[in-house]
Amino acid sequence: MTNAVKVPVAPARRALTDAAARQLANATKTRAQLDTITPRWLIRMLSWTPVEAGIYRLNRVINPESVLVACPPRDESELPTTYVGYGESAREIFLNSVATIVDVHTRVSDLYNSPHDQIAEQLRLTIETVKERQESELITNAHYGLIPSAAPGQRISTLTGPPTPDDLDQLITKVWIPVHHLARHSGDPL
Greatest CA separation found in the chain? Predict the structure, then answer.
């Protein structure tokens, strides 16, 4: 007596399968996306000064308390003679440039240019990455970034490592002006 193994018989197909049908279908494709792209709110919030040649010179008036002015009565009173001094060794900030080279082979742009233009997508994503780096430099650059340039009295340290809600509360207290303080200075009664 032999033990026969029964092999299950696949049912006869009566319709086209999804896997086979997908071979003839067009997939809708999104534009390429990068997880590193963030909103550009910082750039929109700050006021900007065009910087020719990538050099920003910070000129200051020295000894402003020595500038003499008067509010004389309506007569021929003698007016003070004065001048405003300028610092002779102004701080110069040399900005860094952010650059790269985008390389797209013509065969790639010729063969795979539909539905999205490969060169345009490469440029768009590279420009977004350049903008991310520019924004990062504005915040963290050791020579001209916002964080390293902050006055010591405006800096806070976190309590225990990464920022927590308590740390944010401490930050808010740096800029918070109580309502009663505003009313006292505006001349309005409380």
Answer: 137
Using alpha carbons, select from 62, 48, 52, 32 the residue that is nearest to residue 129. 32
Report field, pTM of the whole predicted structure over 0.85: no
CA distance 49 to 58: 12
Percent helix, strand, coil in the chain (nearest 5)? Answer: 35, 5, 55
* Lookup: tokens for 92: 């110069």
| Site of tokens 């001349």 | 187
Classify 92 as helix, strand or coil. Answer: strand
Which residues make Cβ contacts (< 8 Å) with residue 144, sequence separation at least 6?
Answer: 56, 93, 95, 138
pLDDT digits over 2-59, tens only? 677 778 887 888 898 899 888 898 888 899 999 999 888 888 888 888 888 889 998 9
pLDDT in tens, 71-101: 988 888 899 999 999 999 998 999 888 999 9
Sequence letter at residue 128: E
Contact 93, 144 (CB under 8 A): yes
